[in-house]
Amino acid sequence: MKKIGIITLNSGNNYGNRLQNYALQRALESIDCQPCTLVINDSPSSLRLFIRRAMSKLSNTSPRISRLKMIAAKEKNFKPFSEKMLKTTVVEDIDDIVDNYDYFITGSDQVWNPHFIRMDDTNFLSFAPKDKRISYAASFGVSEIPDDQKNFFRDNIRGINHISVREQDGVRLVKDLAGGGAKLVPDPTMLLNEKQWSDLLPAKSQSDKKYIFIYFLRGVDPDLEKKIKDFAADRDLEIYRVMGDYYDADHKTPDPLGFVAGIKHAEFVFTDSFHACVFSIIMKTPFKVYGRKDMKMSSRIETLLQNYHLEHAMSSGEDISFEEYDFSGVEEIRKRGAEVGFNFLKSSLK
Prior knowledge:
Elements: E1 2-7, H1 15-30, E2 33-40, H2 47-58, H3 62-85, E3 88-91, E4 103-106, H4 114-117, E5 133-135, H5 150-158, E6 164-165, H6 168-178, E7 183-184, H7 194-198, E8 211-215, H8 222-234, E9 238-242, H9 256-264, E10 268-271, H10 274-283, E11 287-289, H11 299-307, H12 330-348
Parallel strand pairs: 1-2, 1-4, 2-3, 4-5, 6-7, 8-9, 8-10, 10-11
């Protein structure tokens, strides 16, 4: 049985991050591998240190305080999930454990975001021999790499033996930066089917009222928020709103599986989150996705919706209209994508 070390963003407060980490672990277990997520203490590219740096710039401003309160609010539900569902080991010196693993996989999530990794090559697996380096559904999180980092990215991408990415922009960036090819594969969460996810979820109470599910990482424009609330009121639907990147006492903080359950049982989903879109598709829940403030729709969301022929779920501005959703072909598309993902993993792990 091959031993696999996973390098990813070890966030304790992001739903998509925890769920993709679990899904990759489970996918690897299903092909007779023994995966373990490596938590590298104080790596310059750790998401925890990125957040710490960003927070220090905010001083004692309201955003800083709100962010800190969000982290504290979510931790009590995220920590038990991580401890129960994820196999991890804390690593003090990565060089000491290279011989303990047959392969290392970086991904998924934004492990190659230049704003996160800060010219640190850990997420490119530079500590391991090239023949042990694999990326699965790695994401840059941006459409362009800053000029002063292009040589760094070129050299490190070329050092990876088997490369796969999560979105079309990633395929282009690998080609432009390193002159090589990258395989487009699905996010790990889509390697599991609806039943596999549903079997993990808590039972739904039959007395629960119908509701809409709202999850915006970066907040909602006030005009759009009013339209969404009116949408719910017109249909006599409750509102279940999950906390994003900033604290709000009125927002919910379920654990990651509660997040999935919230989407599964909702009548409609409103979001700016890639993984909220993923689970809306898996659970066949109608959804609308919006670009974040002052940002165009991300390539990873565009790639996802195009693949599932759900481009109408992308909202322009404050549109909240829902067309008829046809999810009848979703599972077949997911299965084809999962086959691509598993074939990549199997061929890379020979």
